[in-house]
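Weekly sync notes, structure subgroup
Attendees: PM, AL, DS (notes)

Item 1: joint prediction request from the bench team. They want all two components modeled as one assembly rather than separately. Inputs as received:
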Amino acid sequence: MTNCKDIEEKLADWLENQLSPQEQAQVESHLKQCPACQQEWQAMQQVWMQMGQLPVPKPSPAMKIRFEAMLETYATTVEEQQTYSPRHLLQLVKQLWQSVWMPRLVYSLLLISIGLGAGYWLHKPSDSQISQYQHQIDTLSIQMQEMRQMMLLSLLENPSASERLRAVSLTQEFKRVDPKVIKALLTTLNNDPNVNVRLVTLEALAELADDPSVREGLVQSLAHQDSPLVQVALADIMVKLQEKRSIELLRELLKQKHVDGTVKSKIQQTIKELS
Amino acid sequence: MFQVKAGDLNKMGLLFERYHRKLFSFLYYMTGKDDASEDLVQNVFFRMLKYRHTFTGEGEFKTWMYHLARNVLADHSQKNKRSVLHEDVQNYSDRISSGAGADDSIYKEQELITLYDSLGKLSEEYREILVLSRFQELKYEEIARILNTTEGAVKVKVHRAMNQLKNIYLKLEQ
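Output from the run, pasted for the record:
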């Protein structure tokens, strides 16, 4: 015997046709015996049936039009959005490259090259400018040399022998030696009290022997030298320079009594080599 | 729907044709308003388009549609705090008269209006389950999936809702 509660629960299922035939028979047999459930069932069935009779609410035709409009709008926006998806990214980049960046790039490159060209053209060193610069540099270096020669000259006057030595060594840095300097050097060579200074001066002058006045000075110097060391060095230089004019002076030197024996033999050898 | 998901948006028209009436009636019973329901239908279909990538195909399209509809509805009732079936009785009785056959009496018409009134007085939860089962003609199994619950729970709920509706109806009839 099923109770009313069980049956009640099944009524809704019956309405929905969700009962098995067996269950249905069970409910039906109960309803026959139970007026309360019978009443319940009838009321429920009535409500259920009436629910089915309720007219189905219908949307207005305008809704479809609105939907279609929405769909269309959406479709177009989606198409636009799709251009931002990865698949279209490459195309987008390509498009940008072709449409926007390319002319810009070309334009900027053009500007850069124009700028470079203009800069080069404006600052292109003209020949006159080059020569002007060169001239300035030359002038500067000449001035520099002049200054050095001035320094040399003043240094040669210095009482200190070592300062005078320094002065003589400066001649090595000169490309072109001023006649004043040569004169000063020759004076030093003939008159300097210090033998060492005279020897260094002699070496320096030997370097400058291309100058005829130097040669002349060197030959004449033979007569002024009394130091054996300087005499020997001079004799060596005469051989080196193949200065035949010195033979006469060397012979005169041989005649002098105070000349050292080794120097004399050196001079004789030199005369032999020169003649 | 898969075709829509794949980008064939025109197939959406087909889905609209097939489902918009059902959807409208569901929303109509839930809101009681004609124009609002139309707006909501529109809204649901818009969401279908917008969230078409979330359609996995695991559940049926119908289930998915009702999910969206319920979300839209929830948004709507949040905005319009009152969610009672707000029927325009005159409007509705017009519908009933025009829809009724020639032999239908005024009495019957009155009955239907009462029933409609009763539905409006039902709690939203019960109304929804009755609308889904009776008007949308969905199976318990489908309703269970839409409501994320079990078939058994749906069964119990339908039963309780029917009982309550019947009680309200009988009360109003007296």
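Discussion: The radius of gyration of chain A is 63 Å.
Action: AL to compare against the crosslinking data before next sync.
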